[in-house]
Design brief:
- By secondary structure, this protein is an alpha/beta fold.
- Helix content is 49%, strand content 13%.
- It is built from 13 helices and 6 strands.
- It has a 6-stranded mixed sheet, sandwiched between helices.
- α2 (37-43) crosses α3 (48-55), α7 (126-134) packs antiparallel against α8 (142-155) and α11 (183-197) packs antiparallel against α13.
- The relative contact order is 0.14.
């Protein structure tokens, strides 16, 4: 499998050594200060459970953690943590064939996504991510699953860190009706979609179950506008993916996306339907 709905892999991903190193450094500095996770967490405004996940290399450290930790642990510890943070790779755990597109995402000024298989990866809350990877075949070992979850959550920093990037997501209502993982997972997913759809630079559009004039017969598509205003495309399938750079081919994808945008529910109608589905659970 190429990206498993935005970033997973069917091959063994690279070990996230940098995440584990950062976690080990944080633990050593915390221990040196004589603080438990329960004492340290609130002082840096994170739960003890979340700190434990970071120290285990299972979570990407938030952007503000180093500065907050320096306030608690001192300037020398802050410099050590900053150095460890520089070694982190946000692409650890991503499929090798997806990494070029992940790099394009990092710099894009516009990102468009149409999905018909699963909710787009940038919009997936952790329970939904776990529901996907827990059903992956062949089955993943626990460590593999945790690396995949960590990698996908790490990609989502884009939504918070790139307020000037325009994000547009179109996906099929059927993906929500499926209730992957059960009612509780779907409830958290709907809450996440409503929250992220409220951001000024994020557009979330549902394609209704019945749409006789549907331009998505070619399947999923990803489009990105680069800082120099060039457009690139990306498609994927079972064990394959393609980066599309030919302007004519990308133009065709943009035309299809524009048509899909006009066929999907409006942002307001999408929000209304998401709220209705949330209330029905």
């Amino acid at each position: 499998m190429s990206v498993d709905h935005n970033g997973g892999a069917n091959h063994e991903p690279e070990l996230s050594d940098s995440l584990r190193t950062f976690g080990a450094v944080l633990k050593a500095l915390r221990d040196e200060a004589g603080l438990t996770q329960e004492e340290f967490g609130p002082r840096v405004q994170y739960s003890a459970h979340y700190i434990a996940k970071i120290e285990q290399g299972k979570r990407f450290p938030p952007k503000d953690l180093v500065g907050q930790a320096e306030t608690v642990l001192g300037p020398i510890a802050g410099r050590v943590l900053e150095a460890a943070a520089r070694s982190l790779t946000k692409k650890a755990g991503l499929a090798s064939r997806f990494r070029p597109w992940a790099g394009i995402e990092e710099d894009a000024i516009s990102l468009y996504t149409y999905e018909c298989r699963a909710i787009p990866g940038l919009l997936q809350p952790e329970p939904y991510i776990r529901a996907i990877f827990e059903r992956y075949l062949p089955p993943l070992a626990e460590e593999q699953l945790e690396r995949q979850v960590t990698a996908r959550l790490a990609r989502q920093h884009l939504l918070a860190e790139r307020p000037n990037t325009m994000f547009s997501f179109i996906f099929e209502q059927a993906l929500l009706e499926r209730r992957l993982g059960g009612a509780e997972v779907t409830r958290e997913l709907l809450d996440c979609l409503l929250d992220r759809g409220s951001l000024r630079n994020v557009e979330v559009l549902l394609m209704p179950l019945r749409q006789e004039d549907h331009a998505g017969s070619e399947g999923l598509m990803y489009l990105a506008e680069t800082p120099d205003n060039r457009w690139l495309g990306y498609v994927e399938g079972h064990d394959s993916s393609t980066l599309i750079t030919d302007p004519k081919d990308v133009s065709s994808m943009l035309q299809r996306y524009g048509k899909l945008r006009s066929q999907a529910l409006s942002p307001q109608a999408t929000t209304s339907l998401l709220e209705q589905m949330r209330g029905a659970l």
